[in-house]
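General statements about sequence and structure are easier to judge against a single worked case. No coordinates are needed to read the tokens, only the vocabulary itself. The sequence in question and its structure tokens are set out directly beneath this paragraph.
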Amino acid sequence: MMRIEMHFRLLLILLTAWATAGSVSAQPPLVPPVTPDRPTNREGTTVDKQDAAGQPVVAVRILGPSALVRKKVLPLLKTRPGRRLELDQLEEDVRELTRSGWFIDVRTYTQSTPDGVIVIFDLLERPLLHYVKFIGNRQVGEKRLAQEAQINEGDPLDTWAVEEAARRIEDYYHEHGYPDAKITILEGNKPKDSGAVFLINEGKRQKILWTGFVGNTVASDSRLRTQVQMKPGFLWIFQGNLSREQLDADVERLTAYYRKLGFFQAK
């Protein structure tokens, strides 16, 4: 009876040991954690830039952008193989890349090797403008509008640049006799847009037919006309465009003229 009980216990111990071994072998092997904001590279270990300062640069690597953009990036960098790593210069490289307008984010890392350090530029590239379109323009051609916009197909998509393009187009209309012109951005003011599309409401063109003054008792009309820039066009056809900005400037010039004459309350 004791022999049967011992055999039973031995069998139970073996079964328990086998089950434990099976659960351990089923677990995935432990993987060392990877820091998500730093690149991994078998050739070197990522080190703090302060520790890498002064060491020779053995390589400069560009992560992220297309091959075409990488070719444009390398000439901008002053941090190059064969030179010592200078942190001030590295920061200037980051500013230069940011000023280029090609990238949303620019980060740098350094990796240690037996011969020196590898400098890594991790770049998040802006999407490109696949098209630039103008809708609603009738009196001004697309070639002129493109010149005023100063953005082109293939440029990096910069929402600020698109907004500035709309402002320049609107200013052009206002200066050429369309004071009520309004430009609306349909596409290009959001980071994930594929191109830039401008909706143009030109409004009616307005011209200056004549210039007159009311309430002037000290200076004659002819004298006041010498103080303003806005004048009727030749035969009411050439020039003579109404510009709201120029009209405001003429009002300021007339006010300044009267105040020089001693009429400080003139409006």
